[in-house]
């Protein structure tokens, strides 16, 4: 279980995040190890909404890393519990502000929306206003019905919702990034 952070620990977290951002900026500039010349990808997946799909998030992030830098790689970490990165209110503000900044920096957004999550819903609402190319992935086999506020936001172009089964995930991502190459 993750504990609440002290002031110095929080400062260390910010320092680590800044380092990561700088590293990401430099790999984006060089395009090293990236498919679509250093694309920045924001991946959304449930954290406090429940971690049932974390192994699938890992698979998605691994595939996304062949196309660019995944700003939110931590979402797919099996070490991250449903308590999130930090339980204190100060930590929450850091997480929120950092993630909104990453959303703004991102070129494309991919969200796994099967496990309902307030945070993912919020991120997608912000992203619609930012007019970023967005792919939402939903598994009907879960027995859930996706929120109308996500399914109904599909405009067939900028914001797309795709039903899929787990075994197709890599192919669907390939298809999506191939269409980006053509646009
Ligand atoms: O610790 C966190 N770190 C973090 O980056 N997030 C962001 C990224 C995820 O796409 C999304 C998950 O939201 P939620 O925790 O409400 O399920 O919010 C959310 C939390 C915890 O809410």
Automatic annotation (TrEMBL):
It is found in: Cytoplasm; Nucleus. Its EC number is 3.2.2.-. SUPFAM superfamilies: N-(deoxy)ribosyltransferase-like. Keywords: Cytoplasm, Glycosidase, Hydrolase, Nucleotide metabolism, Nucleus, Phosphoprotein. It is an enzyme of class 3 (hydrolase). It catalyses: a purine 2'-deoxyribonucleoside 5'-phosphate + H2O = a purine nucleobase + 2-deoxy-D-ribose 5-phosphate; a pyrimidine 2'-deoxyribonucleoside 5'-phosphate + H2O = a pyrimidine nucleobase + 2-deoxy-D-ribose 5-phosphate; 5-hydroxymethyl-dUMP + H2O = 5-hydroxymethyluracil + 2-deoxy-D-ribose 5-phosphate. Its main location: cytoplasm. HAMAP family: Nuc_phosphate_hydrolase. This is 2'-deoxynucleoside 5'-phosphate N-hydrolase 1. The lineage of its organism: Eukaryota, Metazoa, Chordata, Craniata, Vertebrata. The gene is DNPH1.
């Amino acid at each position: 279980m993750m504990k609440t952070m002290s002031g110095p620990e929080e400062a260390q977290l910010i320092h680590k995040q800044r380092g990561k951002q700088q590293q990401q900026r430099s790999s984006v500039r060089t395009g090293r190890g990236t498919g679509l010349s250093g694309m920045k990808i924001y991946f959304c997946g449930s954290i406090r909404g429940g971690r049932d799909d974390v192994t699938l998030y890992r698979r998605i992030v691994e595939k996304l890393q062949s196309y660019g830098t995944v700003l939110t790689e931590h979402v797919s970490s099996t070490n991250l519990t449903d308590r999130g990165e930090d339980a204190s209110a100060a930590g929450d503000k850091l997480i929120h502000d950092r993630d909104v900044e990453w959303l703004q920096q991102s070129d494309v957004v991919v969200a796994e929306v099967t496990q309902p999550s307030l945070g993912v819903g919020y991120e997608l609402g912000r992203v619609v206003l930012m007019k970023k190319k967005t792919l939402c992935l939903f598994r009907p086999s879960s027995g859930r019905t996706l929120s109308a506020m996500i399914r109904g936001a599909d405009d067939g172009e900028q914001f797309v919702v795709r039903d899929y089964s787990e075994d197709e995930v890599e192919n669907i991502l390939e298809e999506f990034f191939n269409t980006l190459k053509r646009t």
